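pasting for the record
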Amino acid sequence: MTTWSSTSFYDNILLFGHDQTGGLIAFQLEGSDKIRVYRRHGEDAVISLESFSPFLLLADPDLLKDWTGETDVAPLNGAGFYRWVARFLSWSSALKARDHCQRVSKRTPSAPDAPYRFINDAVQQFLLLTGKTSFLGMTFPALRRFALDIEVMTAEGFEFPSAARASDQIIAIAMADSSGWEHVISGREHSEPEMLERCSRLIRERDPDVIEGHNIFRFDLEYLEARAKRHGVTLRWGRDASPLRGHASRMQIAERAISYRRYQVTGRHIVDTWILVQHYDVAARDLESYGLKEVAKHFGLAADNRTYLPPEKIPQIFRDDPERLMAYALDDVRETLALSRLLSQPYFVQAQALPFDYQSVVLKGNATKIDALLMREHLRAHRAVPAPSAGSAVIGGYTAIFHQGVARRVLHVDVTSLYPSLMLTFGIFPAKDELGIFPKLLRDLRDFRLAAKTLAREAPTEEERMYANALQQTFKILINSFYGYLGFAPGHWNDFDAANRVTAEGRRLIREMLDWLTARGAVVVEIDTDGLYFVPPPGVTDERQEDALVGELSRVLPEGIRLELDGRYPAMLSYKIKNYVLLDEHDKLTIKGSGLRSRGLELFQRNWMEEMFRLLLTGRREEIPRLVERYLQNFADHRIPVREFMKTETLQDSLDTYRDKVRAKKRNPAAAYELALQAQRPYQPGDQISYYVTGEGLKVKVNEAAKLASQWDPASPDENIEYYQAKLRELWEKFRPLVEQDSLVPVREEAEEAQPTLLEE
């Protein structure tokens, strides 16, 4: 079998860097003119110091004309806007030069029209200049991973823990690592200061490369830091016994801006599996919650004998049955390790390629990563770097619905990696890419992905299969980011005209496929950017004929564009544009579209819809009215648990910002924020609040009648029955016309939506 270690992937310097030094696991600025490089050597991490001469890109060398510090300014080749590079003897000197350029130009470093560019991360600068990357020659199991989780005491009378309260404290610190080692520091055996000291000592003894935790940035580390400060304890977690340090930060995940405190440990990385889960769900959209227990169940990672405890009972259990609490904490870190093993491997592979350290790879956006690959090669070639082009609207793909209702015997065909394929086939690349790096990277990534998929199929062990899948997933993510990069506002090689040419070719191609199928008697139901759902022509009745039809359709496409038969479905519900339900040959339902999977719907609504869809698509529509009555009666009898009717919302603004907006009448009061204001917990943007509606009747103000879901008592239920019954009836009336119609109804709704330019951190 061909193995990863015997392939030539690593030899590709465009993707994996031009310095092939293996086993590098971490980097740290040392003083002001050195980088401390940590390298894996057997079981040990050895350290070397390398010279570091930071840089600043300039559009005009006269920006430094009055600069009194020592610098070396050299011209770069090519027509890019930043045609000069200034090198400095130290990081502190480079920072002063940056500030000088800001004063002279009156432009901040992040301003799009700034005549200078400065990268504020010393490690990123070092990796860009040297071509080094992390983990070359290593496999994911060789990475030393250490999971950490704390359990805390919440004083009586308070619902949430607060490190600022003297009465609250840490009562357990659970730890486990990828070697199988496990340990719990119990608050029954040690004082809180002793627990903190012991935790630091064990981290240094186990010497992990990565510290992992679920929501570790926004809870565990903040709590540990605050309690350590209260007791005068220093959390010496670094490989050089330096302290844990943190600073306020923000990150963007899809439409959500998340505030958090970003922590760093010298010589190690910190990976938050809560963030990994959110990255996963951007594409999958199949998680009900981001909590560790729920996610572990979703992925099948929870052990059969897993210990579960009600959070409000933890103080009592700590007093009466501490061993049960310690088992609960250990299960948390076991699940964290398992979750990381499942989700973090693609980021491990990205760290082997990108000029970012491992922790940064998890936190950076995909377009930022493409920009860094292009920047690294331009610096290596001593080429000028262009300025980002001004942003403009990009017309999106072609989506349409042509029939509404239930369709039978539906085929789905799609173009493999539509936009990357169009870019390669028609030569649509950034005009500013004078070196032609963009197409080279895209072609290589496409070839590498095919090779990695082959490795995954042939892998003799589970670990090798997982690693090969991580490779192909990484290559897929990067491939699909190249089109998005064209419309990335901060991207130095962005090209909005090229982005519009790509989508225009995509729309033209999909319409040609639509016309070809329609001319042969197929009934096209739905088009979703890169593929079509259709009922085959009357004469096509078996799989052999379906394959032949798709083969004929493939031959009308340009060379280099591959069409795949992506699925056969006994039934499909076409609801609205980009909103549909599929029933596959194994009776599995797939529900697509924000209108059918909205997080604004309570769980009982989603459950009812799923049951209703199954009845409808399996030919049992006459049972649906009885389904409605069953749910209505279950509400009347209080047989529906709170988790099914509670609503979970994510706070987008800080509580202060929310209050200011309400006072200024710029927004209406909202239940989640009002409950957060009443709570004792310091809620932050990105936090989730679960609540339900109490009272009687339909004319209830939700923000006034809402209660935290944790306060619901099954022995004395107080949910507003009429309110929730009305929600179900409203949902039923929305779908009733589709349930009652017998066949597909022709409709026509098409969209070529303007997409905003992509924004990342």
